[in-house]
Amino acid sequence: MDAMTAATEGFGVPIIDISPYIRNGDPADRAVVAAKVDAAACSVGFMQIVGHEIPSAVIEEFTAVMDDFFALPLEVKKAYRTPPEINRGYAPPRSESLSLSLGVEQADRMNDFFEAFNVGVEAREYPDLALPEDHYAANTWPAVDHFEAAVSAYFAEARRVAHTLTRIFADALDLPADFFEGFTDHSLDVLRMNNYALPPGEIELDGELTGMGEHTDYGIVTVLWADQVKGLQVLDRQGRWHDVSPEDGALLINLGDLMARWTNERWMSTLHRVKPPIVDGSIERRRSAAYFHDGNIDAMIATLPSCVGAGSRYSPITVGEHIGAKLAGSRAGRPNPYAQREAERVRHAMRRGLGQQ
Ligand SMILES: O=C(O)CCC(=O)C(=O)O
Ligand SMILES: [Fe+2]
């Protein structure tokens, strides 16, 4: 399957069947997949994958427990909050602002109305490495039947898919097959479950309210499960926003900033945001779950020699420094001063008057 979905005229998020990699198939078939991934990464920076072999029962149980958690009263959910520097547990509506991860300040700060629940890789999984307990924090699990088991099952599947994707990336970039393994063998991965829903009374159509502000994802690659309800919008290279929703059974994949740094922007960390539809004064509920594959905290990310060309746009940085500055923006409200290149792309779109759709 290699159809393009025409989200909007002239713009598409390609569908790529990755089963030749999942099933360790024929090298020729794998080369076709790698070439399609390279083409998508060079153009939109978003793709949708099928053939990932995550059992539908795992996804169904996962989304069911997400629903059970988000249906709890706000005060109960708030018991699962953690301090901003710990990217775990519950984040209520309007407690984060993704545009601050880029250093772009909106008129209203902290106005993203998504609520989220985060789980991630824990230090205790790697007892020999003495990983920092703040980044690799222990998870907090809500008292919801089957939640920990169902979320952990999906987490393991998304993690498997993310690692497979980096094997495809190595082939697509003509790197040794195991190139990314040394950067991801204790990867700082986080799964953010997002719920976009506000009671009707809370909607103020003041133009500032947004599901999730514009941002690039911070790490290597994101595996995004999403409802087919509209709301996710992706910025193209001309500065126009396009609606994107996954085809049946497909997962959305987008590249993060570390991939843009490695490739000196041959591959893009695409800007995206979420604006769920408002129907009869109510926000149409939408859910998503983003699995962020961010790399080892101590990994140094420097532009690949094959991509430096006339000079890299980026200085080397560790995963820990990069992710730390991004989270200080989105979670603690300290605008990130180190994301000028992504921030300039947002401002460019706003200047062209194309910021709203
Ligand atoms: O809700 C979505 O579709 C996107 C979520 C997202 O971009 C994120 O969690 O980083
Ligand atoms: Fe995102």
TrEMBL record:
Pathway entry: Antibiotic biosynthesis
Keywords attached to this entry: Antibiotic biosynthesis, Iron, Metal-binding, Oxidoreductase
Matching Pfam families: 2OG-FeII_Oxy, DIOX_N
Top-level taxonomy: Bacteria, Bacillati, Actinomycetota, Actinomycetes, Mycobacteriales
Span of domain Fe2OG dioxygenase: 187-295
Classification via InterPro entries: DIOX_N, IPNS-like_FE2OG_OXY, IPNS-like_sf, Iron_ascorbate_oxido_reductase, Oxoglu/Fe-dep_dioxygenase_dom
Organism: Gordonia alkanivorans CGMCC 6845
Keyword Iron in annotation: yes
Alphabetical GO biological process terms: antibiotic biosynthetic process
Gene3D superfamilies per the UniProt record, alphabetical: B-lactam Antibiotic, Isopenicillin N Synthase, Chain
UniProt-recorded name of the protein: 2OG-Fe(II) oxygenase
UniProt GO MF annotations: metal ion binding; oxidoreductase activity
PANTHER family: 2-OXOGLUTARATE (2OG) AND FE(II)-DEPENDENT OXYGENASE SUPERFAMILY PROTEIN-RELATED (PTHR47990)
Family from the record: Belongs to the iron/ascorbate-dependent oxidoreductase family.
Keyword hit for Metal-binding: yes
